[in-house]
Structure formats: structure tokens, C-alpha cells
Design brief:
The structure holds 3 protein chains of 3 kinds. Chain A is built from 15 helices and 17 strands. By secondary structure, chain A is α/β, with parallel strands linked by helices. In chain A, strand 9 and strand 10 form a beta hairpin. The two termini of chain A are about 20 Å apart. The mean pLDDT of chain B is about 90. The chains are: A alpha/beta, B mainly alpha, C mainly alpha.
């Protein structure tokens, strides 16, 4: 499984199992169907595993069985090789970060007190707690000076969610459980929070169980995805690439929906892609140079670069004689962290057939074309398992 | 804003002080006979006021000591089937008039002292608002907050003390304020069974047909009730956890 | 003498007091509605007068019943008069508050469309606003009734009518077996009235609430 290591350093303890669910079953009295039915699952250390499925499928119940907010009817949960029932539930939970959709911040406590909850429960001294709070606020992108003393009510939804994540990281747990942590955030901010969380995860490398009902989020966030059907049965447990390329029959195919081949585009980031050459001209070039460049290429547009090789516009090439026309402005080039799906989205939005890509410093790197993406979608939909054919991974 | 706050807090005691001043001036300007003199001397009035406040304090303390733990117990998960019937019973009990309750206990338990009877009757009568608001206050605490507290490894006891009760405080305080006002009023009825308090002054006025005494007693009871309501209102503002 | 024997002898007394109790409460409620509803209608749209009305009504409810009865004896003498006035004053807060809330909760679009169809201010009030606010007002009356039934017992202390007289008779005969019987009759009569009135309100609510508005 080469793809499993996506987002983790080479080698390391990538395949060590952190959480092992062993024939885990939860039945509620008076209900004929089990909420979770004999579920066995290994969750590797340092990865994000997303639990995804329709509501009532048992994904949240399964998550709560891990930190014993719900006790199983039968079966075992092993955390880092040890049965979770070996220690009292509160002690266990202090080692497991926990955040939920509504945030669950304590409204009568300041941001700092909220984040300090677990460190204090663990008996850290005052100075260490204070340092930890500031460190975590920095990590989630909130200025400690400004936000330490605020109350949750004085924060926006997105800020509350960041504090929720910081609070879950409070005791520096190896494992984090997140139940739709971004579910209550509007789509625009949700995407920003997702990206930021992935950035944080790249730095902290926790083992994370991430529950969501949104397939797109599961694909974006998950190193592995567990797709839940009814009664807490996992229908497929694999990397996003393999689930999209080769979904299990029936329910999974249906749940992923018809956009699977398009969705796979979101798995590849532009930074890992070699981009084809494209004719460019300097912003300061004179008319003769422009005409020469236009004639020297078979493309319909030339890319105009400004100061520091930043893409600033497109120059259309028209007519039989390939005459350069009026320059069109280029507002927002794609960055290295954008995915191929973002590229497609961008092109559809501005109604273009190509989009400029820049590196982390905003310098021109290349151009991604609609035709390339289209081919990629078609070949992948045909079931080709390899990760890329036309665009080579860097 | 500060002047407005000051006005809000200072207006009530100013008005009540003014009422007391007018009353004092009026009473001292009137000729008084011996019967009136017996009720309208400062020693007697102060002793009745102190007794009134004592009874109110003791009753309120008992109400809190019974209603809050009971409310907490009734909101625990294992008690959810009991809380409905208990509240229903308490509501029906509330239909019993305060005067009826105190007299019923007096004539039924002749062996008990009047003070004991007064305290029992008024505690029973004032318990419902605190009990109901404790339950309501704890129930309105966001489930997600309680769940995250548990999920982070707080013990159930810590969750109750540090999360649930502080978050229930505003609603509970409203109940306590109601109970206080009810208690100040019902304690005035203690005079019917000889338990004393400022109700004595009103009763003296009625039985001796002395309007001066009657008005003094009534005004004092009313001022006391409004004053305690005002104090409770301030306590509500200051005891409410910040951030809510 | 057992309680049934005792009751068999004085049940007419009990009935008289019960009826008097109910009449006292209903009189006061009627007065509270006659005063409270117009005052609410006049003030519910404007902030300061509305706050003043609610403040005064709240203040009245804070004054202990024995004190309010006592204060009213001076101008009104003993008997029914101070009782009716005191109970009316207590009923004002639930009546006024619920009328104001009921009127303010109405969908402004409904009122606006009524005006737009050419209905006059008065007509809108009588045919649209008050009927729509009725369920909330009814709840206020229900609360007020339960409140007054209990407080009315104190009327007996100022020589007023009602079941409080049985309770005070019980107190006066303390030490005799009749004391408990009399008190129980008084208390039970009030509880019974409370239950009866509550049932009555449930029925009225069911039959007077337009369509889907029913609670």
C-alpha cells in the first residue's frame, strides 16, 4: 500500500497500529439492530482516519466507544497496545483529544481556561500550563495576547472551532477524536479551517479519528477512509485513492456518487505535479518581441509575467497572422497547495481553458490545462489504478 | 453607562428610603394613644423586623439546602423517570394556599413549637421555585458542553461542580430570588400562629382598629420585600458567571 | 365525630364559602382584564410606557399579600372591597404581561396586510390583533387565576369572603378535633377550585383558539 504514507515522513512508525477495534459491538436495550456490529479496525499511528457514512450509521458511536463515552456491549478497544478498560475512563480520556461539532467550549471560562482544561487535570504546574496555552493559540493561528482572556461568546464560529482544536491538543495527546469538527462552519471558512488543520497535523502528527458525513471532507482530510453502512458495519476501509478508483459494490459506489473520478482530482496537489511548458512574455516586452513570441507558439494565449516573474495577465493571439491582442487581467493564480480539483473549479468559474500556477513565493511555475484534467478524469474513470499518467508526479 | 448603572442600582433604595422617611414623619406628627404607642415604638418595630429577617433567612437557607441537592439528584440520568412526578406533585402542592398550609400544620401538629411549624410551612411553600429552576437550569446546559467535559477526562463530579452548576447559576438565581420574595411575604403570615415578624404589626392594627399601626406595619413589610427583591437582583447580576 | 360526619353537617357552609371564594376571584379577574387589556393595548407599541406599566405591575406583585390587604383597609375599610382591589392588583401583572407579549408576538405582515386591505386601526385591533393574541392572554388568565385562588384565602383576615374563613375558624378552634376538619375543608376547597378552573381553562383554550394556533 504505497499510498498509505501520504502526508507522513518516509519510513518512521507509519504502520504501527495506534487504535485497534476488536469485534466491537454496541447494542442498545430495546433495539433489534446493533448500533455497532462486531467492528474490527486497525488505525495506524500518525494518520487521519475519517469515518464517513449517512447519519445513524454508527460512526459517532464507534468514535465514542474509543474514549469510553459509550461502553461497548462486547468487544475490545486497544490503544497503543493496551486495553482501554485498564485505566479509569477519566484518566483514559485525558490522553485522548476530543472535539465535537458544536464546539462544546465552556461558555463561562476564558479561551485560556478552556485550553488549560486537560493540562490542569493532568496536574501540570501553572507556568507550564500558561506556556502550553500560548503555544497552542499560536499553533491554531490566534494571537494569545488578544484571545487568551476572551470568552467563547466573543469569538466567531471559526475562531471557536480553532479554540476547540487547541483545547483538544491541550494535554499533547497521541490520539484525537474529532466529531464533525467543522460541520457548523460555513463552506468558505470550513475549507480554510480544513487546510489549516492539515497544516497543523503535518506539524503534530497525531493519530486522528475524524468523523464526518461529507464524502468530500472525508477524502480531503483522510489518509484512510472507513465507509460506514447501516448498523456500524464498515463496508470499505482504504486510502481515498483506492476507494475512489475501486469502490466496493453497491452502497459505497452509491455513497461516493457519480463524481468519484472528479473527486480524485482533489487528492493531487499542484506542488507535486510537473507542469508543461507555456509561452510567456515579460510585461515590459516591446511589440516586436510579443509578435515573435506569438508566432513562435501554437497556443491561443501568451502568459504575461510581471515583476519577480509573477503572472499578471493573458495575451490573446488572434487571426491567421497570429497578432497579439488586448491584454486580459489575471487575478488569482493557483498556489502549490491547491489541488487539481481546485484548478478545475477555478477554470470553470472564470470560464478559462487554462490556469497559471505559481510557487510558494508567487513566482510563475507553469500552466495547467483543462484538456489535461479532462483526460485525467476519463482515464481514471476507466479504472486505471496508477495515480497519474499525463501529469507526472514530481 | 456608569451613571445609568448607578441609577439602576440606587433608584430603588432611594425611593424606599423616601417612603420610610415620609412614614416616619407622618407617624411622629400624629397624636398617638397608648394602644398605638405599644406597636409604634422603635424597640418593638426593630424586634419584629429582626424576627422577620431571622425567619426569612432560616427558611431560605433550608429551601436552598433541600431544593438544590434535590434538583441536582432529579437531573441525574438515573432519576429522569422520577423528576416528572415529583415536579407535578410539587406543582399541585403549590395550589395549597400559604395561609392554609401554616394553619393546617399548626392544628394538626399541636406538639410542635410555632417557630418550627412556621419554618416547615414556609420551606415547603418556597421550595418549588428553587427546585424547578435548579432542574431547568441544569437541563438547559448545552449537552455538547457536558459531553466535551467528560470527553476531556473530567470526572462526573467535576463536571457537575465546575461545568453544570456554574452554567445553571443564572436560572437558579432567578428561582432563589422568587423564593426569597415569596418567603418574605409568607413570613408576614406567621403572625396568625404567633410566630412573630412584621405581620404582628399589621395584625395589631387590624385587631385594634388603629389605621396608623396598620399602615406602618403594611408599609414596613412592603418595603422589606422590595428591598430584598432589590438585593437579590443585584446578587443575580454579580453572581452570574462571566462569559454568559 | 369523624370527618365525614362533620362534613355532612357543615357542607352547606363549605359550599357557600367556596362559591364566595370563586366569585371573589372571578370579580377580581374581570376587573384586572377591564383595566389591564386597554392599558396593554395603549402601551404595547411604545418602549417607555410599556416598561413603566410592566414595572408597576411587577412591583405590585412583589408586595406581600398581607401588607397589600392591610394598606387597602385604611381607604376601603374591612370586608369585600379591599379584598377585590388587592386581588385585582395582583392579577394585573399576568394579564398585562401576557397581553403585551401576545400583541407583540404577532406577525407584522398580518397586521400590515390587514391595513393594506383598508381596515381601520380599531377594526384591525378588534378583529385581527386581539383574537390572535387571545391564546397568550388566556395563559395569563390561567396563571392569574391560580395565583388569586391562593391569595384570596387571606381575604378572610380582613373580614373578606371566601374559604379563608374556614381556615381561620380552624385556627380559632385549635386544640379541638374540629380545627383540623375546618382547615382541611378550607384548603381542599381551594385546591379543588384550582383543579376545576384549570380544567375549565383547558376546555376554553380548546374551543376558542382559532385553528392551528392551539397550544
Amino acid at each position: 500500500m504505497p499510498d498509505v504514507t501520504r502526508g507522513t515522513p518516509e519510513g518512521g512508525a507509519a504502520d504501527r497500529t495506534m487504535i485497534r477495534l476488536d469485534a466491537l459491538t454496541k447494542r442498545y436495550p430495546g433495539q433489534s439492530e446493533a448500533a455497532v456490529d462486531a467492528l474490527t479496525l486497525d488505525i495506524p499511528a500518525g494518520h487521519i482516519v475519517t469515518f464517513v457514512g449517512p447519519s445513524g450509521c454508527g460512526k459517532t458511536t464507534t468514535m465514542k466507544l474509543i474514549n469510553r463515552l459509550i461502553e461497548p456491549t462486547s468487544g475490545r478497544v486497544h490503544l497503543d497496545g493496551r486495553d482501554v478498560t485498564e485505566v479509569p475512563a477519566p484518566q483514559l480520556r485525558r490522553r485522548i483529544g476530543y472535539t465535537i461539532q458544536q464546539g462544546g467550549l465552556f461558555p463561562h471560562r476564558t479561551v485560556a481556561d478552556n485550553i488549560a482544561t486537560v493540562p490542569r487535570l493532568l496536574g501540570w504546574d501553572r507556568r507550564r500550563v500558561g506556556e502550553r496555552v500560548d503555544e497552542l493559540l499560536h499553533l491554531v493561528g490566534l494571537d494569545p495576547k488578544t484571545y487568551r482572556r476572551r470568552y467563547p461568546k466573543q469569538l466567531s464560529g471559526g475562531q471557536q472551532q480553532r479554540v476547540g482544536v487547541a483545547r483538544a491538543l491541550g494535554g499533547d495527546p497521541q490520539v484525537m477524536l474529532m466529531d464533525e469538527p467543522f460541520g457548523a462552519i460555513d463552506p468558505l471558512n470550513r475549507e480554510a479551517l480544513q487546510n489549516e488543520f492539515l497544516r497543523i497535523q503535518a506539524a503534530v502528527r497525531k493519530t486522528i479519528v475524524f468523523v464526518t458525513h461529507d464524502m468530500d471532507e472525508a477524502i480531503k482530510m483522510g489518509d484512510r477512509i472507513a465507509i460506514f453502512g447501516d448498523n456500524g458495519r464498515v463496508l470499505q476501509y482504504d486510502t481515498p485513492e483506492r476507494i475512489l478508483a475501486d469502490p466496493a459494490e453497491g452502497f459505497v459506489t452509491e455513497f461516493i456518487g457519480s463524481g468519484a473520478s472528479v473527486r480524485r482530482l482533489s487528492l493531487t496537489r499542484l506542488e507535486s505535479v510537473v507542469l508543461p511548458d507555456w509561452p510567456t512574455v515579460e510585461e515590459t516586452s516591446d511589440g516586436e518581441t510579443l509578435r515573435a513570441a506569438a508566432r513562435g507558439s501554437d497556443r491561443d494565449y501568451l502568459l504575461v509575467l510581471g515583476d519577480g516573474r509573477r503572472p499578471v495577465g493573458w495575451l490573446p493571439v488572434t487571426g491567421e497572422d497570429r497578432r497579439p491582442g488586448e491584454r486580459l487581467p489575471l487575478l488569482s493564480p493557483l498556489g502549490p497547495r491547491d489541488s487539481l480539483f481546485d484548478a478545475l473549479d477555478h477554470m470553470l468559474t472564470v470560464n478559462a481553458s487554462a490556469a497559471a500556477v505559481v510557487d510558494g513565493d508567487g513566482r510563475y511555475r507553469g500552466v495547467v490545462e483543462m484538456d489535461t484534467l479532462r483526460e485525467l478524469i476519463n482515464t481514471r474513470a476507466a479504472g486505471a489504478p496508477s495515480s497519474s499518467d499525463h501529469l507526472q508526479e514530481a | 453607562m456608569p451613571t445609568r448603572l448607578l441609577l439602576r442600582y440606587a433608584l430603588t433604595p432611594l425611593c424606599l428610603g423616601l417612603v420610610l422617611l415620609v412614614l416616619a414623619l407622618y407617624v411622629s406628627s400624629q397624636p398617638r394613644d397608648l394602644i398605638e404607642e405599644r406597636s409604634l415604638n422603635s424597640e418593638y418595630l426593630i424586634s419584629r423586623t429582626v424576627k422577620h429577617l431571622e425567619l426569612t433567612g432560616v427558611v431560605t437557607a433550608f429551601i436552598l439546602a433541600v431544593a438544590i441537592p434535590l434538583g441536582v439528584l432529579l437531573t441525574r440520568r438515573w432519576a429522569r423517570h422520577v423528576s416528572g412526578p415529583v415536579l407535578a406533585l410539587a406543582s399541585i402542592g403549590q395550589a395549597i394556599p400559604s395561609l392554609g398550609l401554616i394553619v393546617l400544620l399548626t392544628v394538626a401538629f399541636v406538639s410542635l413549637g410555632v417557630n418550627q411549624i412556621a419554618v416547615i410551612a414556609f420551606v415547603l411553600y418556597g421550595i418549588l421555585p428553587v427546585l424547578r429552576n435548579t432542574i431547568a437550569g441544569l437541563r438547559q446546559v448545552d449537552r455538547s458542553v457536558v459531553e466535551s467535559a467528560l470527553g476531556m477526562g473530567m470526572t462526573p463530579r467535576a463536571v457537575l461542580w465546575r461545568i453544570e452548576l456554574p452554567l445553571a447559576v443564572p436560572v437558579m438565581l432567578a428561582g432563589v430570588r422568587t423564593a426569597l420574595v415569596i418567603t418574605v411575604g409568607t413570613v408576614a403570615l406567621g403572625t396568625f400562629i404567633g410566630a412573630g415578624g412584621l405581620g404582628d404589626v399589621i395584625s395589631n392594627g387590624i385587631s385594634s382598629s388603629r389605621n396608623l399601626v396598620l399602615v406602618t406595619g403594611s408599609v414596613l413589610v412592603a418595603v422589606l420585600a422590595l428591598l430584598i427583591d432589590w438585593l437579590a437582583g443585584i446578587a443575580e447580576d454579580f453572581l452570574r458567571p462571566r462569559g454568559l | 365525630m369523624t370527618f365525614p360526619e362533620f362534613f355532612a353537617e357543615n357542607w352547606t357552609d363549605v359550599l357557600d364559602h367556596t362559591v364566595a371564594h370563586a366569585v371573589l376571584v372571578l370579580q377580581s379577574l374581570g376587573l384586572a382584564v377591564l383595566i389591564g387589556v386597554p392599558v396593554s393595548v395603549l402601551t404595547y407599541r411604545t418602549g417607555a410606557p410599556r416598561a413603566a406599566v410592566l414595572g408597576v405591575a411587577g412591583l405590585l406583585l412583589t408586595i406581600p399579600s398581607y401588607a397589600l390587604f392591610g394598606l387597602l383597609i385604611t381607604p376601603l375599610g374591612l370586608g369585600s372591597a379591599p379584598s377585590v382591589v388587592a386581588l385585582t392588583l395582583y392579577a394585573l401583572l399576568p394579564v398585562v404581561r401576557n397581553t403585551i407579549v401576545g400583541l407583540r408576538e404577532l406577525d407584522p405582515a398580518v397586521i400590515e396586510s390587514a391595513h393594506a386591505m383598508g381596515m381601520g386601526r380599531m377594526r384591525v385591533l378588534v378583529t385581527i390583533e386581539l383574537p390572535l393574541a387571545w391564546p397568550v392572554l388566556l395563559t395569563g388568565l390561567r396563571v392569574a387565576t391560580q395565583l388569586l385562588l391562593g391569595i384570596a384565602a387571606i381575604a378572610a383576615a380582613v373580614n373578606g369572603p371566601g374559604l379563608g374563613n374556614l381556615i381561620l375558624d380552624g385556627l380559632a378552634t385549635a386544640g379541638t378535633p374540629f380545627a383540623v376538619y375546618l382547615t382541611i375543608e378550607g384548603v381542599a376547597g381551594i385546591v379543588l377550585l384550582a383543579v376545576l378552573f384549570d380544567a375549565l381553562y383547558a376546555i376554553v383554550n380548546r374551543f376558542t383558539t382559532p385553528g392551528r394556533l392551539g397550544a
